Every structure is written in structure tokens, then in C-alpha cells.
Amino acid sequence: MEEQTTVLVVDDEKVIRDGCTLLLQPEGYLVATAASGREALDLMGAQPVNVVLCDLKMPGMGALEVLEDAGSLFPDVPIIIITGHGKVADAVECMKKGAYDFVTKPFRVDHLTLAIKRALEKQRLERETKRLQEEAARNLYTLAMEQSRMHTIVNCMADGVLVTNRNLEVVLCNPTFMQLLGLSGPLPQPGPLPAYLNEQSFLDAIGELCDKAESEPAKCLSQEICRGRVHLRAMSAPFFGPDEKMLGTVTVFHDITAFKELDAMKNEFVHMVSHELRSPMTAIKLQHEVILDGLAGEVTNKQRELLSRAQGKIQGLIELINESLDIAKIEAGYRQLELLPLQMGEVLREVVELLRVKAEDQKVTLNLSIPPDLPPVRADRRSMEEVFINLVSNAINYSPDGGAVAISGFSHGEYVEVRVADTGIGIEPEEIPKIFDKFYRVKHPRTRQIIGTGLGLALVKGIVDAHRGTVEVESQLGVGSTFRVFLPR
Ligand code: ADP
Predict the structure, then answer these.
(1) Residue 359's CB: how many other CB atoms inside 10 A?
(2) What distance in angstroms lies between residue 395's CA and the mean position of ligand 1's atoms?
(3) Integer Cα distance of 487 and 339 in angstroms
(4) In angstroms, what is the span from residue 440 Cα to ligand 1's centroid?
(5) pLDDT over 70 for what percent of the chain?
């Protein structure tokens, strides 16, 4: 319910007080009256009053004195002076002293209510202005507190933080960043990014992140930066203003040197063990072949069946060892890549020929479609064969009878894309980030009987990364999967 407005009428003449009451009450105002200035001030101290109508001349305390006292005690209550015709000059004098308006006797009800309404509006505006001023002061204080808190958090973080504006000038970095990058001394802020970090691959990638930020706002960047023996993982993301315009980027640098050292030790260990296992395994396989070929005497059917099964297992182990060795070599950077202009059409035709029998056995059709003008890529032939043997084998393995695998090539400016699409069992969205991990195999009743090592896609990713390319997957459960390999020309 709206609060009623109280008008205080101050006049020594009872007839004016009663007259005002009679005029204002039907207009919805609560009317309080006082016969003197003193009584008016006491009443204002005792109850809320919104506006005062005050007679100019009263015995004892006149309007000027009331204005003076009320002005300091109740500064936001507007006072309207009631005056006779001949006293307008005195009323104007009162306005100079702070009265809001004056009305002359005898007054009409519309004049009186108009003056009261205007006074109340002025009071409302003054109160609103005051409230906004107080709010602005509070906001400034909160902002200052927030800034100081943010500053403390960023400065105390164990990870490095680097913030740029949209022109890729550094506007903030914390002490950990300076320490991780081995920087000292004050650097300009805002200052050019290469003055802080001149890793060309990082500069290129963050430039691309900025260019595409507004069309792909959720895109983040994860890169490894190697500085001597220090390895850093840099995670960059764009940030946006309220109008969804990109304002800049934030990169967090995490020191992964210890993980890298452990990983290198583990790779060395796997490499050594695999190497030691490969020769005896190959020898066992050859000896089995000698027996199976009947060169060591007659072999019964039962013995042949058992030995053939053992051959299959040994072959699986040799593949596992070879893939482990390949991955270990790529990860340790030992594998020599012979980067020469390579026609992917040729490589893919060979891969399809190699896997045609396997596909026919599994009742899967293979379709190859490579445009004749597909530009060459700079790549290592043997590695590319490995990549696509793995992808096409998977596409066949994870497709049911009657499935189809399409291998196609596309040119995108600086990149060539090779797509391997199948109509197979598909991969659940939460599994997709894990399938490139070493030894990871999706646990699914339909994949249980499919033999594999869980190393194929790790190898694919390792090789593609070493070529500065990327590999992406799109998949829908029960519909199929598409692996897209992008290789630089
Ligand atoms: P594996 O030797 O098990 O095939 P990979 O590293 O090649 O190992 O693949 C990892 C896992 O990813 C597989 O176990 C399989 O679950 C899933 N996967 C790979 N390719 C496909 C595909 N084309 N369709 C469905 N699932 C696939």
C-alpha cells in the first residue's frame, strides 16, 4: 500500500489551518497542524512530515526562523511559504533562504496541490540522487576491494598467468610467470607479447585463437613450451565483454618438467623391455614356422591347431612390441622423419590395397575418393602408411557386416585433409577424449571380441603431431565415426 503524504500546516490563524485541512484531506493527504513555528519544529521531530506549508508572518517565530532551524534539522523536507498579496517580496526573500515555493492567500485548491506535488517531486528526486551517490560510492569501494583481492590471488598463484588485450599486448602477468620464463626487470605494460615470450608456435597459435575467438568462443588452446630443461603446459582462452566482443586472452602456465622427466624415464624403460622382448619373440615365431612347415618331423592336426593358435598370440605380442617401440621413439623424438613432398593419393591407394582382403573377410566395403589435383603434403611416407593403416583397420574392425568405409581427401589452403569415415558402432562422447591415450580401449560388449592393443590411435596422434598436423574425431553411437587428419602442405 502506498504510504500517505503528511502535510504540516503552520499558521497562527485557526481559520487558515482549518481551511487547508478541509482542502487537502479530500485530495488524499494526511494533514497535521501547528499554531506556531516552535510547535511545528517539535511536531517535525516527533512524527514524519513530507512537506510544510508555513505562514510568512507569525508572532514569535516567523517563517524565516522556521526555515533556518528546519533547514539544518530536516534538510530534505520542502517548505512552502503562505503569504498575503502584498508580501510577495518577503516570500521571495524566504526562497533565497531555502524555501521551495510560495502560495498567496487566498489560495485555490489546484494552486495549493500543484505546489505540494512539485515540492514532493523535488524531494523524491533529491532522495534518489542521494541514494545513487551513496550507491556509486559503495560500488567504487567494492571495486577497489575486488581489484585488490584479484591482484593478491593472481600474484600468489603457483602457476604463471599472462593476460593480453585484443591486440596481443601484455596487460598483466604474475611473478610466477616471470620466474618460469626466466624474465627479470620491469617490462612495458601494455607491452608486445614477443617481448615476454618469443616462442613462434605459441605466438602463431594465440594469434589464430584471437582471430577465431568471436566465431568459436569456447575454443581453448593447450600447448607445450620447452625452455631448456623446463617444460611448461600453456592453456590459453579468450575472454569477452558484455557485448560478446573479444577483449583479450588469458594463458595459464603450468610447470610439467617433473612429469616430462618421469615420462622420459618410463619411455626409456618401455623401449628397453620391448627391445629385449622382440628378438626372442621373433625367434619363437620362426621356430614355430619351422615346425608347422613340417621341417622338424610330422605334425598331427591337433599339434598344428595348437601351434597356429600360439602363432596368432605371438604375432599379437610382436605387434604390441613394435607399436610400443614406435610410440616410445616418437615421444622421445628419436624417430627420424623423412619429410618429402608426398602424394597422399598414392599412399592411400596402397593402404586400401593392403587392407582389401581384411575388409572383404569382414564384409565391409572400402571406397577411396581422392581428387586428382590434391596438393602434396610434406610428410614421412612410412609414418603416413602407419597412420592410415591404423585408421582404416579400426574403421573395418569397428564396423558390422555390410558396413562401408569411405576414405576421401580435401584441400584447405595450407592444409590437406584426409577423412576416414565408417558406418560402424560409433564412440560415446565421453570416450572420445580418451581414445588417443596409450593402451586405452573402450569397454563395450561389442568391442570385447575385437583384438587390439589400444596403441593404434596413440601412434596416429604421435605421428600426426610430429608432422605439425591435427587429428579430430566426430562420432555418433550406432551411426559411425569420422576421423579427420589435417596435414600441412
Ligand atoms: P585398438 O587396438 O583397441 O583398436 P586404438 O588405439 O586404435 O586401439 O583405438 C582405441 C579405441 O578407440 C578402440 O579400442 C575402440 O574402442 C575405439 N575406436 C577406434 N577407432 C574406432 C572406430 N572407427 N569406430 C569405433 N571405435 C573406434
Answers:
(1) 20
(2) 8
(3) 12
(4) 8
(5) 99
Tens of pLDDT along 83-122? 876 677 877 888 888 888 888 887 788 888 899 999 999 8
Give SS3 for 157: coil
Select from 213, 212, 208, 240 the least CA-distant residue to 223. Answer: 208
Q: Do residues 76 and 123 touch, judged by C-beta distance below 8 A? A: yes
Q: What is the dihedral of CA 196, 201, 205, 206, to 10 degrees?
A: 0
Q: What is the pLDDT of residue 242?
A: 86
| Ligand 1 cavity residues, CB under 6 Å | 390, 394-395, 398, 422, 424-425, 427, 435, 440-442, 447, 452-458, 481
**126-155 pLDDT tens trace:** 889 999 999 999 999 998 898 899 889 999
Euclidean distance between CA atoms 218 and 248, whole angstroms: 14
| 102 class by beta-carbon count within 10 Å (0-12 exposed, 13-18 middle, 19+ buried) | buried
Q: Which residue has the cell 503562505?
A: 82
Parallel, antiparallel, or unpaired for β 6-10 and 30-34? parallel
Higher pLDDT, 458 or 86: 458
Q: What pLDDT sits at residue 1?
A: 43
Contacts of 303 (CB under 8 A, 6+ apart): 291
Atom 14, ligand 1: residue with shortest CA distance: 441
